[in-house]
Design brief:
single chain; 155 residues; mainly alpha; Arc Repressor Mutant, subunit A; three-stranded antiparallel sheet; 3 strands; 65% helix; globular; WH_DNA-bd_sf; MarR/SlyA-like; WH-like_DNA-bd_sf
């Protein structure tokens, strides 16, 4: 780390502030809408979405946490809450006695199947429709560039 902070100039600060405002507003609005539409929290939705897009609708708990960029403790608390509501189940891993899979239950699959069409319409209305196809491609490239850059940086 440098001893002297590299403060943001006016353009950098404006870009950062705009990005943060957009991201927080979009995620907050989508979270409220998924809750209103389905009764699921945004976290429930993220977990079920990730599980149901994988073969067998299951993932190791640490792998799931990594995909969602969550700490292990957050993943454990979230999956416990979802197990109580019957959305996911825990299955022991036959290869590793200490490991476990989190599996989307039939109720969890039904919940995400009901919520997903409404969610995608909100994503389209609030995000996709605001940009031209060229702007979306540019945003996709920029987002990937920042994500790739972060992968190379220490935590």
């Amino acid at each position: 780390m440098n001893a002297t902070p590299r403060w943001l100039d006016a353009d950098e600060q404006a870009a950062w502030d705009s990005f943060i405002r957009m991201q927080e507003t979009l995620v907050g609005r989508l979270s409220r809408l998924v809750q209103a539409d389905s009764g699921m929290s945004a976290s429930d939705y993220l977990v079920l979405h990730k599980l149901t897009e994988t073969d067998g609708r299951r993932m190791r708990i640490l792998e799931l946490a990594k995909h969602l960029e969550w700490e292990k403790s957050r993943m454990s608390h979230q999956t416990r809450r979802m197990m109580k509501r019957g959305l996911v189940a825990r299955e022991e891993c036959p290869d590793d006695a200490r490991g476990a899979f989190i599996v989307a239950t039939p109720d969890g699959c039904k919940a995400i199947e009901t919520a997903a069409p409404l969610h995608v319409e909100h994503v389209r209305r609030l995000f996709i429709d605001a940009l031209t196809p060229n702007q979306l491609r540019t945003l996709g490239r920029l987002s990937k560039r920042v994500s790739d850059h972060m992968e190379k940086q220490p935590d």
